[in-house]
Amino acid sequence: MLFEDYMVSDTPRWIRWRIQDVGNQCHDETGSDEVLNKDKIVAIWKEQDFEVLDDSEWETMSEGDAEFGIIPKVSCVTADIPTAINLGESAAYEYSQLPGTNKAPRRSYVRLFALAPGRENDTISCTLTVWPLELAPNYEAISYVWGDPTAKIGIRCSGQSLGITKSLHTALKHLRLQDRERMLWADAICINQGDVDERSSQVTIMKEIYSRAQCVLIWLGEETERDQGALRELNHLYEILSGLPEGAGRAISHSYGGDEWVSLLKRVAEGCRKEPVGYLLELPWFQRAWVIQEASIAKMAIIIHGRETILWDMFRFVAFKMKQYHLIPSWRNQYFEDTCQHVATTFDSNAHTELFTLLSCARNFCRSTDPRDRLYALLGLAQDTSITSVIPDYRKEPEQVFREFTISELQRGSLAHLSATTYLRDDPGGLRLPSWVPDWTRCVDPDPFTSFSALPFAASGATSPMLTINSHTNVLCIKGLVCGLIRKVIPKTFKDYGPDEGSSNHNTLLFLMNCHDIVFGLDCISKEFTRSDAYLGFCRALCSDIEFEGRPLSEIAVRLSTFYVEEVRNLAVEFLRSLPGVSRVEYQSPRESVVPFMDFVTQVLTWSQHRRLCVLGAGDIGWVPKKASVGDLVCLFYGAKVPHVLHPLPDGSFELLGECYLQNHMLGEALGKNLNERLFEIC
């Protein structure tokens, strides 16, 4: 039995069949080897409370029987008429409600459309049908960017007119076959966008829709002059990079090794045409929230850009290697690198299991027209219990969706959301939320410590949260310990100093001098002092007490101190040479200290480059959010993995500024200290 032979019409509450029965047995061509017969089909539908035909009706059915709503096979449309139709020339397509009962709710059904064959200038024509999801025929799902939702182009849908965006219209022209139909799924056609309840219901099965598809077709749009040939270049890079052995990336980044493959990699870095690839990665598809799920869970996915294609897995491999091997064009360095990182890690369906981690990884890169989709688009990838508290509902305002999600997590005992706040005082943009509720539509730097499950922090030990939430005033009352007030803080973050130019370490040095100054003062720059226990603690604070690649912190401290002392002397020499009347100053710094230090900067300060170093009243050193200032309070909530920073308000309440690192407080040490306990009211 061909799948066209048991299509379900888009008609409310009536399942309609046409069956070509050959000996009462037929094969299901949806990919299963199960043999279906009339009795089995009838049994399936009776289980779901649908009316089915009795034996006499089955026997008397004739092809095209209108009385029972029988659907004839889809006929091909090959008329040579304009590609688009005027939306006012024919009746607009009207969606019927998806079937549904208590046993088989509406979310168990999907619409698919058979895209009729045609040539380039033919009108886009399709036939829309409804299927039980588990019985749907083989189909492909389209992943694309809507574009301007107000600019519609007409197509023929089941004989009527349906408006779709220019982006989808162009995609269908490219995807249409010339000699046969193509069964497809696309949200703008298969979901009634005007039915809020249907949208909410279909969002809950988006994972199943894309995971059941035979292939996900990723449509990036037509090629332009500046990104032309990008996929050809990526296919070429895959051929080269997939042949390199493990370890090539570390060798090239540390400039050692004389093997032939290292030389090859250097030639690739110098010779490949990375500009079209860079422009390709700037296309809006890579920033769309929904595409993470659509590409990650696919059985197979293909990127289509104009007439060029590449397998998604090959594309992800190249993106990862381009970052690993530093094949990043300098003219677009940061964005290119961030996109490669996003594609290589966020799109890994096996890398993240918690919804909070997914939200944190996607937050700075993904965009969505509807703010609620920042959360809804990732539900299908999360595997933790928090997803049970989120039921997509487009009738709710975004503020309500985010607030309810945070409240459910706090009541579940997780304080991770308090580390993801982006609250900015007197900020006219963004959603109007309490300071303790993250606005997932806003970018945030840096990523929260709590989004990295591998970090060993347990600042509050084995304690449990002690909190209440006033739903009327949106005030969070939470108990914890007072760690101290911020007494000093450096003026800028490491990132604010900007990159060093060429081989100069000038900005890096200025940042370290500011950090050194607020902790020790600039007088303590002797080599002996930088090898002391106090300086080792300073180095531990700089790297948030996190070791990299098994290197002990004492080794990092020695490397840092060597660089620091020698570079300060270099700076002094440069200053002396600039004075009038000074003709010659002799000093030669040992440059071998620079490479180990830069290794320290790139690997260790990753955790603190968007934070500011501070000193509390008791002398404790820590990293606080960029917006923190002198007089703000550092506290430790019971049940929290890390301390947090609060800004005091005149009425005695607080605003939450975000999480922080505090030296000698990250592994439960605060519980053994004589710190004041307090109930914090956060609004």
How would you sum up this structure, described in words?
This protein is α+β, with helices and mostly antiparallel strands. It has 4 domains: 1-213, no CATH class; 230-346, no CATH class; 386-489 and 621-682, no CATH class; 502-608, no CATH class. 30% of the residues lie in helices and 16% in strands. The chain has helices at residues 38-47, 55-60, 166-175, 187-190, 196-203, 206-212, 230-241, 248-254, 260-271, 274-280, 291-296, 312-324, 333-346, 355-363, 373-376, 398-411, 506-520, 533-542, 553-578, 594-604, and strands spanning 25-27, 35-37, 109-115, 125-132, 140-143, 152-157, 160-165, 182-185, 215-221, 301-305, 308-311, 467-470, 475-489, 612-616, 621-624, 633-637, 644-648, 654-659, 661-662, 677-682. The strands form 3 sheets. Strands 7-6-4-3-8-5-9-10-11 form a 9-stranded mixed β-sheet, with helices on both faces. Strands 12, 13, 14, 15, 16, 17, 18, 19 and 20 form a 9-stranded antiparallel β-sheet that branches. A hairpin with a 2-residue loop joins strand 10 (301-305) and strand 11. Helix 7 (230-241) crosses helix 10 (274-280), helix 7 crosses helix 12 and helix 19 (553-578) crosses helix 20. The longest helix is centred in the last third of the chain and has 26 residues, at 553-578. 38% of the residues are buried. Residues 1-36, 48-83, 253-258 and 584-595 have low confidence and may be disordered.
